[in-house]
């Protein structure tokens, strides 16, 4: 209805409008289903902030001549589970309005509850950990343990020390570590030092000189190979031999084809839910990526995946349709939950660390040479490499939510 109201206002302003429906049915949240007991409305039971000036309110009351009752006591509303059993009472309107007010009206410090302040102080370290992704915290912890082990072997006190850190850097360079790993180790130890009151450890001259030496001694970075389309085709062929009802094979085929065609990171792939997909006729599918590594503000972007008519087995859209047939359904028969589940009978989504492991397994079975030189990122690099070689503009497949948002 928001789209209808917007189209009406634009039409009234003399602008020609073409209204498109993204779903396979009109109505959006306005949806009625037929049951043995009659028709049941599943959505849009009230209008938020109803009153003159609200475009939807004006359409309903004036143009459709529908009588709207007075504001309802939402505290008495009941929440029902998908199986029809009663749930808990829900003050939906108050919660909705509260969130909106909180978003636009900062609360003065003198009005903060003392319980909140005490909880903030008690959980302070947990809040600080949110400055980095949890995977980065784990990597930093590993570097810290390695540094402490070096101190133990060297027979020196396990404290922040620029000279010891510089020796640790050069030692790593001479023992097969990539320069990217060594640099991350310096940042990790410097952060560990900062937590102990020692500032600027990484910027010390001896550490910077050691990094220059390490850059000359270290092994080349372990960047993985881009996955060639021919090797991807070989993997898909092996997967299709497992049968269309083999959940793992169908899932992995869709996972690899979509990751390759959409140039997705593994974290983006495993984060996709069925509700994030919108069919675009027979042309393809739009996938909403709510957040990515380069989109820390969480604005999101729509990525268009085109159907492939020339080679059916390499079509990511058809692979998704096959996986959709095996997905769990809600009461309306629509697929729900994560697209890439870990197991067919579990709602838990596949972890991002599993993508590379799955790819390794099937590359090996497809007898692809040097399969150990590929990782999950090979899907993204492979799709991008093929697009550049084929003259396809990579950014053309991305529809950002606003003109200022772009995806690399």
Descriptive terms for the model:
408 residues; alpha+beta; four-stranded antiparallel sheet; two-stranded antiparallel sheet; 15 helices; 44% helix; 8% strand; globular; disordered C terminus
Task: Furnish the topology, listing elements before pairings.
Layout: H1 2-12, E1 32-35, E2 38-41, H2 55-63, E3 78-80, E4 86-89, H3 92-104, H4 114-122, H5 124-128, H6 134-154, H7 162-173, H8 179-194, H9 205-217, H10 229-240, H11 247-262, H12 266-270, E5 277-280, E6 284-289, E7 301-306, H13 316-324, H14 352-365, H15 377-390, E8 398-399
Name the strands of the widest sheet in spatial order: 5-6-7-8
Query: Which oligomeric form is depicted?
Result: single chain
How far is the first residue's CA from the last residue's CA? 34 Å
CA radius of gyration: 27 Å
Order of helices and strands: HEEHEEHHHHHHHHHHEEEHHHE
């Amino acid at each position: 209805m928001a789209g209808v109201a917007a189209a009406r206002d634009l039409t009234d302003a003399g602008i020609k409008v073409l209204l498109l429906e993204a779903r396979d049915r009109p109505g959006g949240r306005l949806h009625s289903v037929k049951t043995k007991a009659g028709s049941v409305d599943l959505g849009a039971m009230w209008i938020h902030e109803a009153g003159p000036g609200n475009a939807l309110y004006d359409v309903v009351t004036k143009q459709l001549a529908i009588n709207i009752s007075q504001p309802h006591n939402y505290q008495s509303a009941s929440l029902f589970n998908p199986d029809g059993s009663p749930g808990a009472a829900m003050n939906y309107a108050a919660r909705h309005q509260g969130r909106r007010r909180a978003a636009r009206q900062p609360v003065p410090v003198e009005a903060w509850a003392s319980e909140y302040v005490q909880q903030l102080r008690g959980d302070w370290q947990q809040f600080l950990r949110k400055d980095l992704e949890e995977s980065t915290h784990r990597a930093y912890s590993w570097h810290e343990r390695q540094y402490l082990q070096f101190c133990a072997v060297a027979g020196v006190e396990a404290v922040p020390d620029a000279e010891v850190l510089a020796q640790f850097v050069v030692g790593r360079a001479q023992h097969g570590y990539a320069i990217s790993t060594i640099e991350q180790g310096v940042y990790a130890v410097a952060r560990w030092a900062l937590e102990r009151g020692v500032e600027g450890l990484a910027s010390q001259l001896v550490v910077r000189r050691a990094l220059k030496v390490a850059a000359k001694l270290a092994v080349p970075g372990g960047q993985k190979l881009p996955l060639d389309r021919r090797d991807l085709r070989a993997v898909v062929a092996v997967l299709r031999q497992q049968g269309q009802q083999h959940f793992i094979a169908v899932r992995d085929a869709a996972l690899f084809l979509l990751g390759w065609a959409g140039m997705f990171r593994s974290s983006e792939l495993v984060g996709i839910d069925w509700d994030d997909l919108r069919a675009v006729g027979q042309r393809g599918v739009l996938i909403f990526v709510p957040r990515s590594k380069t989109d820390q503000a969480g604005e999101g972007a729509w990525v268009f995946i085109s159907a492939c008519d020339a080679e059916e087995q390499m079509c990511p859209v058809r692979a998704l349709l096959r996986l959709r047939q095996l997905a769990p359904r809600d009461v309306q028969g629509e697929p729900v939950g994560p697209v890439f589940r870990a197991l067919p009978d579990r709602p838990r989504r596949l972890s991002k660390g599993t993508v590379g492991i799955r790819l390794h397994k099937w590359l090996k079975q497809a007898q692809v040479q040097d399969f150990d030189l590929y990782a999950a990122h090979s899907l993204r690099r492979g799709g991008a490499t093929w697009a550049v070689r084929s003259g396809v503009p990579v950014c053309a497949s991305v529809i950002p939510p606003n003109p200022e948002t772009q995806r690399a």
